[in-house]
Amino acid sequence: MPSASELCWWIITLVCLYASCHVQSGEAQNPKEVILLDSKAQQTELEWISYPPNGWEEISGLDENYTPIRTYQVCQVMEPNQNNWLRTNWIEKGDAQRIFVELKFTLRDCNSLPGVVGACKETFNLYYQETDSEVGRSLRETQYVKIDTIAADESFTQGDLGERKMKLNTEVRIIGPLSRRGFYLAFQDVGACIALVSVKVYYKKCWSIIENLATFPDTVTGSEFSSLVEVEGVCVNDAEEEADNSPKMHCSAEGEWLVPIGKCICKAGFHQKGDACEPCGRGFYKSSSQDLQCSRCPAHSFNDREGSWRCDCEDGYYRALSDPPSVACTSKSSRFCLSGSAVFTREESHVVLCERESVVKDVNVSRK
Fold first, then answer.
1. What are phi and psi of 225, to 5 degrees?
2. Nearest-5° angle of CA 345, CA 348, CA 351?
3. Which residue has the higher pLDDT, 253 or 165?
4. Which range is the signal sequence, renumbered to this chain (predicted)?
């Protein structure tokens, strides 16, 4: 029968295997995750609460860069009726309602341990406790809510050590909805041989985005798996909401933006370029937000500024006040037809509207 020290040596060896084979590759953080706790990233002692003191033990290893990693192990399989607890430090949840707990661990195959089959287990239990503040270093089992019993998909044997096989298990559990400011996690060992290699706690959010010329802010996901959080967008600079079509998006439980509704459009004098509205250049104009692009100034008109919604007539040229900005300016001596037999004749500061050569009425004119 193996001694307790031999069992611990097996676990430590596997932890070192994990450090050399897995940590060196690194794990990119999911951009949708907000990390609340990552034990693998902490190089100093974790100093979690272990009860009784001879149960869970904090051990350290080195990755390929000789950076310390902290893990916990327990292997009290020689005696029955084990009840070893490990509790994290207090975790402030921020704006989260739904928390993800990712556990990476190794677990010894009980059948590979002669003489301990009756006492050995191949599961452990995960708990949590909600609080508004830290509660000190006491650990009261009755105050914890069970999340789940955690079992290994793969367990290791002594032969795996000789072959340098790393059977690392990853399990993710979800807590929520949460209503207090923070919480503790706790792990209950009932007689297994476990190395808790890493504990990561996080929540998901939809990160800020610009869609259809509207900005949508960082948004925490809802409390349920099927939740869709509706978010109203804010138009970017120099844009306005399209009539009766306000921009909205929905943040899914997985941290993805879905179902875009409505949009913003660039104001008069501005046109869209990428996710922004830029002013029309000199010599160009855009008279309405409904227009997509800036247009070159009509004949005999100009502007010497950016962001114009119209162009001014050159000296000696005019257009009627009722004319749209797209109409060219004309000189006071010119004649032209508007429609049918109606004709404009420019005289001084007025345009005389004529029909069949007889004067009908005067129409004010402008250089603008």
1. -60, -35
2. 35
3. 253
4. 1-28
